[in-house]
Design brief:
Helix content is about 15%, strand content about 55%. The protein has a nine-stranded mixed β-barrel with strand order 1-2-3-4-5-6-7-9-10. It is globular.
Length: about 240
């Protein structure tokens, strides 16, 4: 992918990449598929009208948002090394009254330029750069390190129960040329229910749909995730 293509990956305004960052990015060092391992905290809230507006134009008219999923991940093992991540996902039902729910990453930030390039190139995930403090199972903060201004925080209190389980999801992303790609993701690990206090501040719109407040969620321990290559349908 060229720098122009990478810059064209659809995402919310907080994910726009400034020209000085684009000029210093590496090549894609890790094509799909990816197998990764790490720990995470995730939470969710009901989707609102702002969630629909956050979807890429290629999906906005045909997909009905039902849920917003936010979270932090600390990756211990990936094809591009260790790194931290914060994300905002819109879960929606597809066209024609489909009951199948797909997930679209509309906001994502990492502290690894190689992960940024891999995410945008392999799956059209709109990764940008941020700095991170803390840990997913306690308190964690992400702050923008580009010319955008935003901060996401979480403070988690796990419940004293846990289960080990696996899950599958379909990730649907719009590509810069208007095509749409589906990526199968499978995951497995130990999960603990948690109560999570979420903070979101931004000079853009993410707080309108990735809403701050107290949330029900999960802490994931030693979770493993597999991401397949995207199956792209022409625009």
């Amino acid at each position: 992918m060229t720098a122009f293509d990478i810059a064209g990956v659809p995402g919310v305004p907080e994910t726009l990449l400034p020209a000085d960052l684009l000029g210093g990015l590496p090549e894609n060092l890790a094509p799909a598929p990816w197998k990764v391992r790490g720990s995470a905290v995730v939470w969710w809230n009901r989707a609102n009208a702002s969630a629909r507006a956050a979807l890429p134009e290629a999906l906005r008219e045909t997909h009905k948002p039902v849920m917003v999923i936010g979270g932090f991940v600390r990756y211990a093992d990936t094809p591009v090394g260790t790194y931290d991540e914060v994300f905002g996902i819109i879960a929606s039902k597809g066209p024609g009254g489909s009951k199948d729910v797909v997930s679209t990453v509309v906001f994502m930030a990492v502290d690894s330029p190689t992960s940024l390039v891999g995410g945008r190139t392999n799956w059209s995930m709109p990764k940008t750069l941020a700095s991170f403090e803390g840990a997913p199972d306690s308190e964690m903060t992400a702050r923008s390190t580009t010319d955008r201004t935003w901060t996401v925080t979480s403070r988690a209190r796990a419940l004293p129960v846990g289960i080990t389980r696996s899950a599958k999801a379909m990730i649907r992303q719009a590509f810069p040329d208007g095509s749409v790609g589906d990526t199968a993701m499978s995951s497995g690990g130990r999960m603990r229910p948690a109560l999570i206090s979420v903070g979101v501040e931004s000079d853009g719109p993410i707080a309108e749909w990735l809403k701050p407040g107290r949330r029900v969620g999960m802490i994931l321990e030693n979770v493993q995730m597999d991401f397949t290559p995207a199956q792209i349908r022409p625009a």
